[in-house]
């Protein structure tokens, strides 16, 4: 007997039995189910018999078999159960396969075979048991599978969480290790840098000490050479002086002998001339007597020639003599002119001496002069800068390689010329001047002489124009201080006034500068004297007005702090007399300077400290006189003169 293959047709449900062509269970589940089905069939009245044992392997697997489900039965049993079944033989098997389409029986079908109907009912009952068992097994399998999957997922999650925690802990430990290593490296770097800095400091200290020793040796050598040169120079000078004295003595002896001989000749000649003069005097006396006798007879008196106003020529209206020389047009105080002449004479003597030194010496002193000029250009308004430049200038003055007269003459000249620069800090420069001249007083005399030479209004004085006194306008302008370029063209009035203002600002800063621990030789007393002499002697014009305004801008604050009401009187004179005279002149260029002076007086700017007066570093007091102390009623309308 060969097995047959059972193939289901639609409908797949017969009564309570459902045929599923692809059951959702494993081969092991199917095997167990078949064993239970065989046990049930053994106890039933169904003519199914087991032909052979199904020895399936007891290996659990979830893989489905690709072979079809084959049920083997005997042909007589098949005929008894399904009379009308359609048998399909499988050539490759001894079992017969059959199709269930012919086995489908509906409730409406009529059958005359009662045995067949009984067998069918029995099979339906068995099929319900099988179906319920298969369903139960399927559910149990699904539940077990899900539970196993959930257990595996839980284990995987637990393992993953554990691995994450271990990874985090390991990463934290690694980070701590790295941080510890970085901190250790940082400490090592700091220690290493400290050691390097200490080593470098020691090295630099050693190098500096070595350089200092070298510089000290060089300085000692320079001083020794200078002393040797000085000794040689003195020795040479002594020899020359000795020769000169001997020569002068010989010349004096020869001169004395010549003078004695000349004296004798002169005495003889004088005696002869005296005799001749006596004779001529006697003759003249006779002639005068004759003339007087003649005038008495005629009666015609002699008179002096007079000018158009009835005054003798050569005499001014005020009784002072007026000459045709330029000096007669000078307007200045007598004391101011005397001081000017003394200072200029001193400067002239120093310059002549310096010229003689340059000719007699082979040394070039221009290097020291350029160094002085460079230091003056570098002066700025800070305490440290002023102190440094002062020390360097004093060091140059004390340098034995350069005579002091050359150094201070160069200092005075460069200071005055440098003030023409618009970037010059006048207050800082005045501090340097005061500090230097307090140590070297002779420098102040030369500095003031340079001021007078560059600007006549620092005297103060003014030269009036006269055609008889000056050959041309250009000559007059040169007397006032105008400059002439290389082409012979005179500078403009605007440029001259700009330079004039620069000179007066530096002069005003100088007289008002007070430095603790240093004496200002030309201080506020000289500034007060300058202002009084200016108002008494100088006429009002555009040049004098510019000089006055520049001076008040810089020195007015300090003068008011010291002289108070007396200074207000001078301001009143400026307001009533000087400005009134300026307004009466028909000069369009005066309008601006008049407005500036009026603004200075009306706004009382002398109560405000000028910008830059106090150096950074508090060299000077920054106090200011309260405005309440100033009242317009305190002005005294006095026309007195202030001569110094």
UniProtKB/TrEMBL annotation:
Membrane spanning stretches: 542-560
Q: Where in the cell is it found?
A: Nucleus, Nuclear pore complex
The entry's cellular-component GO terms read: cytoplasm; nuclear pore cytoplasmic filaments
Q: Which UniProt keywords apply?
A: Coiled coil, Membrane, mRNA transport, Nuclear pore complex, Nucleus, Protein transport, Translocation, Transmembrane, Transmembrane helix, Transport
GO annotation, biological process: poly(A)+ mRNA export from nucleus; protein transport
MF terms from GO for this chain are: inositol hexakisphosphate binding; phospholipid binding; translation initiation factor binding
InterPro entries for this protein = GLE1, GLE1-like_sf
Stretches of the chain forming a coiled coil according to its record: 228-294
Matching PANTHER family: GLE-1-RELATED, MRNA EXPORT FACTOR GLE1
User: Which protein is depicted?
Assistant: mRNA export factor GLE1
Look up and give the organism this protein is from.
Cucurbita moschata (Winter crookneck squash)
State the taxonomy lineage. Answer: Eukaryota, Viridiplantae, Streptophyta, Embryophyta, Tracheophyta
């Amino acid at each position: 007997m060969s097995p047959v293959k059972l193939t289901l047709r639609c409908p797949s449900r017969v009564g309570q039995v459902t045929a599923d062509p692809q059951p959702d269970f494993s081969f092991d589940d199917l095997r167990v189910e078949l064993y239970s089905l065989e046990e049930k069939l053994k106890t039933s009245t169904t003519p199914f018999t087991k032909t052979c044992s199904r020895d399936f392997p007891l290996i659990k697997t979830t893989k489905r078999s690709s072979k079809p489900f084959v049920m083997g039965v005997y042909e007589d049993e098949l005929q008894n159960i399904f009379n009308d079944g359609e048998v399909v033989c499988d050539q490759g098997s001894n079992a017969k396969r059959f199709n269930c389409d012919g086995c489908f029986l509906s409730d409406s079908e009529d059958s005359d075979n009662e045995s067949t109907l009984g067998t069918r009912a029995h099979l339906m009952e068995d099929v319900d048991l099988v179906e319920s068992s298969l369903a139960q097994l399927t559910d149990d399998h699904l539940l077990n599978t899900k539970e196993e999957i959930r257990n595996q997922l839980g284990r995987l999650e637990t393992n993953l969480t554990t691995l994450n925690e271990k990874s985090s802990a390991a990463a934290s430990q690694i980070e701590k290790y790295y941080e510890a290593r970085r901190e250790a490296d940082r400490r090592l770097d700091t220690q290493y840098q400290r050691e390097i800095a200490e080593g470098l400091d020691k090295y630099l200290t050693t190098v500096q000490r070595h350089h200092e020793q070298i510089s000290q040796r060089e300085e000692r050598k320079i001083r020794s050479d200078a002393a040797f040169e000085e000794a040689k120079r003195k020795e040479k000078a002594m020899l020359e002086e000795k020769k000169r004295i001997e020569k002068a003595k010989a010349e004096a002896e020869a001169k004395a002998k010549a003078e004695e001989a000349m004296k004798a000749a002169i005495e003889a000649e004088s005696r002869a001339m005296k005799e001749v003069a006596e004779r001529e005097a006697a003759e003249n006396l006779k002639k005068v007597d004759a003339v007087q006798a003649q005038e008495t007879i005629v009666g015609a008196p002699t008179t002096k020639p007079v000018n158009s106003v009835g005054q003798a020529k050569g005499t001014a209206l005020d009784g002072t003599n007026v000459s045709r020389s330029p000096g007669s047009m000078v307007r200045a105080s007598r004391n101011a002119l005397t001081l000017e002449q003394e200072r200029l004479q001193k400067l002239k003597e120093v310059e002549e001496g310096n010229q003689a030194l340059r000719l007699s010496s082979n040394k070039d002193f221009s290097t020291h002069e350029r160094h002085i000029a460079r230091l003056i250009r570098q002066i700025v308004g800070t305490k440290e800068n002023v102190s440094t430049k002062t020390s360097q200038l004093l060091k140059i003055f004390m340098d034995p390689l350069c005579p002091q007269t050359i150094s201070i003459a160069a200092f005075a000249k460069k200071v005055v010329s440098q003030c023409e620069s618009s970037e010059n800090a006048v207050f800082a420069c005045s501090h340097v001047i005061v500090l230097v001249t307090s140590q070297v007083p002779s420098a102040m005399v030369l500095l003031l002489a340079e001021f007078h030479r560059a600007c006549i209004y620092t005297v103060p004085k003014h030269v009036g124009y006269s055609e008889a006194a000056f050959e041309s306008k250009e000559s007059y302008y040169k007397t006032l201080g105008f400059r002439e370029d290389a082409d012979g063209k005179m500078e403009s009035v605007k440029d001259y006034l700009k330079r004039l203002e620069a000179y007066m600002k530096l002069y005003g800063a100088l007289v008002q500068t007070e430095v603790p621990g240093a004496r200002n030789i030309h201080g506020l007393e000289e500034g007060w004297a300058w202002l009084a002499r200016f108002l008494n002697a100088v006429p009002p014009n555009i040049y004098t007005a510019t000089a006055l305004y520049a001076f008040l801008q810089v020195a007015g604050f300090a003068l008011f702090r010291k002289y108070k009401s007396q200074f207000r009187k001078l301001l009143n004179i400026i307001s009533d007399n000087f400005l009134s005279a300026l307004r009466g002149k028909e000069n369009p260029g005066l309008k601006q300077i008049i407005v500036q002076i009026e603004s200075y007086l009306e706004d009382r700017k002398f109560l405000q400290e000028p910008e830059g007066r106090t150096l950074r570093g508090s060299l000077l007091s920054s106090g200011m006189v309260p405005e309440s102390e100033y009242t317009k009623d305190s002005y005294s309308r006095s026309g007195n003169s202030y001569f110094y």
